[in-house]
Design a protein that fits this description.
Chains A, B: Its EC number is 5.6.2.2. 2 copies of one chain form a homodimer. The first copy, chain A, is of the alpha/beta class. Chain A is about 40% helix and about 15% strand. Chain A folds into 2 domains: about 15-150, Orthogonal Bundle (Arc Repressor Mutant, subunit A); about 155-375, Dna Topoisomerase Vi A Subunit, Chain: A, domain 2 (3-Layer(aba) Sandwich).
Amino acid sequence: MKLKRGKPKEKFSYDPQKVLKKLEDLAYKILEEVKAGKNPYFDVPTRGLSNVYFDEEARLIKLGDKLSRRYFLNVAHARKFMQTLILMAYVKRLVSEGKHASLREAYYANKHTIPGTHENTFEDQSESDPIIEDLERMLGVLREEMHITADRRGYVYGDIVIKDGEDEFNASKLGMGGWAVPGTVEHIQFPEINVDYVLVVETAAMADRLIEEKYPKRERALIIATQGQASRGVRRLIHRLHYEEGLPIIVFTDGDPYGWYIYSTIKQGSINLAYLSEKLATPDAKFVGMTMDDIKEYGLEHVTEKLKGIPPDKKGGPTGDYKRLIEELNYPWFQNKEWQRQLKLALKWGVRIEQQALANKSLEFVAKEYLPEKIREGKLLP
Amino acid sequence: MKLKRGKPKEKFSYDPQKVLKKLEDLAYKILEEVKAGKNPYFDVPTRGLSNVYFDEEARLIKLGDKLSRRYFLNVAHARKFMQTLILMAYVKRLVSEGKHASLREAYYANKHTIPGTHENTFEDQSESDPIIEDLERMLGVLREEMHITADRRGYVYGDIVIKDGEDEFNASKLGMGGWAVPGTVEHIQFPEINVDYVLVVETAAMADRLIEEKYPKRERALIIATQGQASRGVRRLIHRLHYEEGLPIIVFTDGDPYGWYIYSTIKQGSINLAYLSEKLATPDAKFVGMTMDDIKEYGLEHVTEKLKGIPPDKKGGPTGDYKRLIEELNYPWFQNKEWQRQLKLALKWGVRIEQQALANKSLEFVAKEYLPEKIREGKLLP
């Protein structure tokens, strides 16, 4: 199997004017209602599991079409109504001025006492975060498009040219460090791409191993280190590199329920962020390892570790790794024989295998044999 | 107070040959003892609090001169003796070949069953990590100099040219992302420095704020984001920028016991790593904020948060933030009126103040007023 860049399916879509237009349209609607003496309201797509489903065709976790109507003249709704308008005004200012704020800054910036009362606009960040999520759902835009940045984590190494504002640089010419992925990647462009695919790697130590072994150059791969669960910025970057630049996505994590969960989130999206799956998830992603079959295949029995938690057939179980494993066995997107086999083997053996355990063969092994062989022979999980 | 680059006090010192020489000298000593029919041994500086002290003059946490002798022909020592030799051989190979390994890889790579026995060389990483620390102490080198890399975290933004192997780039031309600090910075060089000082920032969100506000350019500052507790790589980078490049170091954290602990570790080193203070710590570092006095000075009373845990005068206390606060009150390096005042105010008021709370004034406030004013007026804590 030779990995090659394919045709793009999406276009660069960052457009602050579009976001401003949506905000203004919504605000004008409210204004008209006020002028007409009506009770103004927002229609907010309902959150929670009851309004989430797995779209088999698109292979994405998606948001349903249930709406909750939030009125101004309703004692139960008025506070949230006010908070929504405050944050809409704030986002408009951010986007107009080309500035970004973190969720925490957005909270602090908008916390004040309402004149003539002892009431605060927001008591806690747990009040402002959900309103920003509501705005994402109502407007159908990512909070990054509203210039509210997410936590940043993860870095990139490989032969592509990244353009961020006026700066342009090659992400394989930054020494061993690599480029730190910012909280928002909406505006990033890729004027030059000299790689055939993206290898997403769970741990920094493994990404560094591959960089040191010159894997990116030899295999024409772009390495993205997630450093644990992939941040929103990294997930959006993966999505864009696949859909806008046509790069195949291969994911490489530890062989354990947490690693597989990281893969699942990159591929299918998460239930919490179901309304964002179409922009954050990459259902075409494939999984190279680690798998339970790798343990036998590569003779790694003596460097496995025990799963944490209580197995389902023991008192108090399942907990820990076992609990997550059982959940994964039931994921709609893991209902195929390859994944069922790996998950059931993990349950049966009660072990996990780390990426770095491959160092037991030799430091080079992962870069010169394990990955190239598995990818060449197409030994990838769906 | 105008911050300016001063004279270097240390030189670029990375020299793999020096490390190899030390390893070989030690190995030859053992070999000679074996040849002479003697019982071979290592002298290992004793770990633990009993062998750690605060050097008032150097203002550093340092390791004392107590030694433990580890014999081969001693049932209680033989296993560790073997492990030490295994890891010495491994480090020699790494350094000779110019390769790096993580602590975890070093463990996996050296775990095997001793032929003819059921005994493993290492059962767990908790056996190999302390041996690597022993080697650091015995040889007086950082584990990074032995090519064992630490966890990587943190990024850098500002007008300096970084040279890593054949790559050279300006850390202010990488868009908003910045340069991801690698696990090992020993070999990094700085051919060009166009900044007057280093501003070390605890949170990524605040570092990103300052970058967006063009603080690095306007104030000729290099931003280093630690993203929580500073990684070893970041601490070594700060040390080198100060001692080899003469840059003043200013630290900016949340105004809470954890933020002050981050500062303390950058400045004085930590008890666990006392033997490394001379290479990792930077006693000349100064602290700009957040302080308890900032709360009144800038009218931030309504955006403080309560300290976590139980106060010392309540049943079960002190725990959480309060416990750390009490410890900090007793640190030798916080025995000055400025720090005692801040720590006691925190204890009295029971509150903390975050960096991002400054967004309550305006997004620009921190970059255009708070930091420039405090630094210009020299309102820095020792």
